[in-house]
Amino acid sequence: MSGKVKHRTAANTAEAATVTVNEKILKECHNLYTDADNGLVSIGENLGLKLLPPRKKINVMLMGNHSAGKSSFINWYVEEHVQRTGVAIETQGFSFVTSGRKRESLTGNATLHLYPHFKTLQEIEGVVDYLNTEISTSKQKKFSLVTFIDTPGLVDGDMKYPFDVNQSILWLGDLCDLIFVFFDPIGQALCKRTLNIVEQLNESHPERIRFYLSKADEAGHESDRQRVMMQIVQELCKRPGLNKTGFEMPTIYISNPSKPSRCVNQIEEVCKDIEKTINQTIQNTLNQLERDCEQISTLVDDTIRADNMARSHNLKAKLKGMVFSLLGFLLPITLIFTLLVASAPRRILNNLVGEDMAQAIVSFMVPITTLWENVDDENQLAILAMVLVASGICLIISRIINKSKPTLQRRSKKILIEKQEYVNSHVKAQKKKLYAEYLQQSVSEHDL
Ligand SMILES: Nc1nc2c(ncn2[C@@H]2O[C@H](COP(=O)(O)OP(=O)(O)O)[C@@H](O)[C@H]2O)c(=O)[nH]1
Ligand SMILES: [Mg+2]
Fold first, then answer.
1. 171 class by beta-carbon count within 10 Å (0-12 exposed, 13-18 middle, 19+ buried)
2. Which of 1-10, 30-39, 62-71, 371-380 has the lowest mean pLDDT?
3. Over the stretch 98-123, which tens digit does the pLDDT of each residue have?
4. How does strand 58-64 pair with strand 131-136?
5. pLDDT by residue (tens digit) across 346-367?
6. Residue ranges of the G domain (predicted)?
7. Whose CA is nearest to atom 24 of ligand 1?
8. Which residue, judged by its Cα, is nearest atom 12 of ligand 1?
9. Using a 6 Å cutoff on CB, does residue 85 contact ligand 1?
10. Residue 353: CB partners within 8 Å, gap ≥ 6?
C-alpha cells in the first residue's frame, strides 16, 4: 500500500514538473514576442511585419446536443465542480474554463479582455451577455495548459437562442485547437443543428474535430451501444461534407463508483489527445519562433540592401545632376566669353588680364572666334537664343535627375543591425534551449 502511495506521489511530482516545463516553454516563447523593447512583435512592426504572439494555452471547444455530458466532462477533467450540470440545467451561453491563481467567475466583457484572440465574437449581436469565464485553481491533468470552451446544448426546432448560436460556434471553432463533438445515446443523438454545424466546421478544420459517444454507460448492452453508434455514424456519413472513411468514435463516460459499468471507457484517450495537441502546439510554437526570427533577419538584410542601393543611386543621380548643371552654366558663360573676346576692343582685354595673358586667350580662342565672326548677325542672335534654351534645358534635366530616394538615418540603421544581431544570437539561442528542454522532458516522460 505504502509502495503504491509512494509511486503515485513520484508520478505526481513528475507530472507537476512536466507541466511546469511545458508551461514555462510557452510562457517564455510568449515573452520573446511581447517584450516591450526587444519583443519580436515590436521589431517586426518596425519592419512592416505583423507578428502575433503565441498563445500560452490550447483551446478545446466542446459541442453537442443538450445534456450530452459536455459540462460533466469538463468537471471530470478539472476534478472540480466548475460547470453546472444536469438534464434540466442548460449551459445558456459560452463558458471559458481555465486555470488561474484563484477561483473566480468573470463576465462577458472581462472574458473578452482575458482572451483578446476572441474579440471578434463581439461582432455577433448579443453574445457578449452570454459569455463567462470560470477560473479554477486546479492543476489536474494538463489543465494548466488548456482552456475549455463549453457551448450551449444544441437542440432542433423552435428553440430561440438569444444570439446567432451557429455563427458563434463557427467563429470559436476557428480559434480552437480541438473541437470535441459529444453524441449521447439517449438524447437527440442526431440533432440536425449539431450535424449542420459539425459539417461546416469540418470544411475548414477537419483535423481538429473528434467525435465521441458520451455517456456510453447509459447505452445499455453492448449490442445496443453498437446499434446507437452505427446509427450516428450512418447519419454522419449521409452528410457529403462529413463522409470520410474510417470514422472514429471512442466511447466515453464518467464512471460512477455506485453504478459500475462493464462498458469500455476510452476517456483516457481524450486526455492523451489533449496532451498530444499540447505537445504539437509547443513544437509548432517553437518552429514558428525560428521562422519569425529568420523572417526578421531577412527583412533587415533586405532593408539594408535597399538602403545601400538607394544611397548609391542617390550618389549617381547627384553626379549626373552636377554634370548637367555644369553644362547649363558653362554654355552661356562660354558664349559670353566668346562674344567678349571677339567683339570687345583688345585694349579692354589687355587692361583686364594683362597683355601676355590677353594674347594667350585670344590665340586659344581663335577657332571659336573666327567661327563666330563668320556667322552673320541674324544667325548670331538665333545661336544666342539656342544656347540659352539649351542651357535652360540642361538645368531642368539636372533637377529631374538629381531626385534622391529616401535613406535610413545612420542611427536607425545601427539599431536595425543591433536588433538583427539580438534575434539571431539571443532569440535563436533561446529557442534552441527551449527545444532541448522540451525534448529532454519528453524523453524522461517515456522513461517513466
Ligand atoms: N451515466 C452518465 N451520466 C452522465 C455522464 N455525463 C453526464 N451525465 C449526466 O448527464 C446529465 C447532463 O450532463 P451535462 O454535463 O449537464 O450535459 P451538457 O448539457 O452537455 O453540459 C447530468 O445529469 C449528468 O450527471 C456519464 O458519462 N454517464
Ligand atoms: Mg452544460
1. middle
2. 1-10
3. 999 999 999 999 999 998 888 889 99
4. unpaired
5. 888 888 888 888 888 888 888 8
6. 59-201
7. 86
8. 67
9. yes
10. 361
